[in-house]
């Protein structure tokens, strides 16, 4: 049996998990910790952003 992933809308309580996933994803693609830290402001999810776009 195949596992099926389910995509759901982000919730304001998901900001830390989304931010963490973003950093893990960048590291997976080979970006080093120094570069990821440079992007930290742009790649940090906020409750206000979710409220605005979801």
Describe the structure.
There is one protein chain. By secondary structure, the protein is mainly α. It has one domain. Helices cover 50% and strands 0% of the residues. The N and C termini lie far apart (32 Å). The model has no long low-confidence stretch (mean pLDDT 93).
Name the descriptors.
3 helices; mainly alpha; 50% helix
Condensed summary:
With 54 residues, the chain is mainly α. It has one domain. Helices cover 50% and strands 0% of the residues.
Number of helices: 3
Q: Termini, distance in Å?
A: 32 Å
- Count of beta strands: 0
Kindly report the average pLDDT value. 93
What's the order of the H and E elements? HHH
Number of domains: 1
Q: What is the beta-strand fraction?
A: under 5%
The helix-and-strand class reads: mainly alpha
Low-confidence stretches: none
Helix proportion: 40-55%
Computed Rg: 13 Å
Q: State the shape.
A: flat
What about the largest sheet?
none
């Amino acid at each position: 049996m195949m596992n099926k992933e389910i995509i759901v809308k982000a919730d304001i309580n998901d900001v830390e998990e989304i931010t963490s996933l973003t950093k893990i994803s960048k590291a997976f693609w080979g970006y080093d910790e120094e570069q990821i830290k440079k992007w930290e402001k742009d790649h940090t999810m906020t409750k206000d952003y979710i409220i605005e776009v979801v």
